[in-house]
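[SOLVED] Need 3D model of a two-part complex

Original post:
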Amino acid sequence: MTTSPKEKSWQLQVLLLPCVLLVGALVIYPALYSIYLSLTNASLVGVAATHPRFVGMRNYLRLFSDGEFWSSLLVTVWFVLGSAVIGQFVLGLVSAVLLRRPLRFKNLFNSIILLPNAVPEVVAGFIWISMSAGGEHSTLNRLIGFLGIPSVQWLQQFPLAMVVIANTWRGIASAMILMMAGLSAVPPEVCEAARIDGASSRQIFRFITLPLIMPTIFLYMLVSTVTTISIFGFIYALTRGGPGNATEIIGIYIYNQSFTAFQLGYGAAVAAVTLVISIAIGLVYVRALKVQV
Amino acid sequence: MSKSIPAGSKFLDRNGVAYATLSLISIFCAIPFVWLILASFDGNASLFLRWPNPWTFNNYIGIFVREGGARWFVNSFVVVGVATMIVLLFAGLGGYALSRMKVWWKKPFLYLIILVRVIPPPALIVPLYKILLTGNDAVGSLVRSVVNPESVRPVMLVVGLIDGYLGLILVFAAMQLPLALWIMKTYFDTIPQDYEEAALVDGANLMQRIRLVIGPLALPGLAAAGLFAFGLG
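Solution:
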């Protein structure tokens, strides 16, 4: 009649089985297979496509002397710093703080800021192509035209900056949502007490609110950094890494190596190194989170 | 009370800054949509921002009449809808199991699956295609041995992993499952075990406990997980 603990544990493992099978077959196995590919000279064409040869660490050694890889990594660093760590975070935090006030049109502001989050990444890419197209009739050039500034070939002259701005636009909402959640956990009594003690709003924010939402900020940094590193579709739709290699973030570089240069093995090696870097960054954040909490 | 007037004016002043800042951020968020909306009503739309000339609904009608627009929407709804249902079912059961079980590989498993959000997507294309191809061949030979030859193709459209919905659905579900599992596991952690134990004492078996006790309790968590899976898929 009664279910023994052992039987119960067995039942629970059966319940988990579908998840393990699905994730194992379509996430973990492909990831491991990709690591195996990185140790071979696998290719999309030629002899190596049908009979990949095991080459050990050769792809990884090549990677360290590959200037394009390092420049792509540098572009990724600027991209992540500019859009996720600074752009989305600052604008998201400012919006979240301001929207806590009893303002009129609060819901309107809120929903407008949430809008970009709902756009599929490919559509977002095309929207920004039109925003920043050259010629005096593109949206951005019309805007600066009002100020009397001659038109600019945005994606040719400031490719990286434009990509950073476009990605900031996509991510303000997610930062804002997370920051709002963090802010709503700050007890109002603490701020009230500080106000009675004569603290100014700036002081309250600097010495009470900010330290209290620090864990949320670190959590946001963790999530946004590692997901921004692995962005692919949005930049592929917007610039395909061009002009030249100016916006070739690491996801695009992996794609180009694997499917344009047909070097699957080498592309997989780049992906493996990227994964290791992401995990390392993640561990740093997790450690920082533990110190903060 | 006597300070109410200066305080009030300062309040207005500070809110003025707030309105200005929020307006700027909102304009930044909204401006890219202006072209999208204008161009969608423009008979001769280009990359450039301009007043539609001629104003027309032809683009909207054209999607459904000239192009296979209805088909695209049906495709999206079928793929995302079925994938979300799979995610909810699997993550509901799995999240419950993960929350209640005490095994050594629980934590490693949870951290391993969250890696899915970190892997650069292009790295998964070839391995995924290979495993789907292998699965497709296996399903194909199974189908050929069961049904008569002329109905192999229609059957494969439904159960095949390539050139059909099923493969795409499974991949989408697998990509969304880790996050949903985390959400559901954390959610079940907040539900006391007393409910299930009471049902157990009353003699309910596992299926009854899931259907009558755990399922209804899980609905709010499932709603959140479903929203994430549907929105991100």
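Edit: The longest helix of chain B spans residues 4-40.
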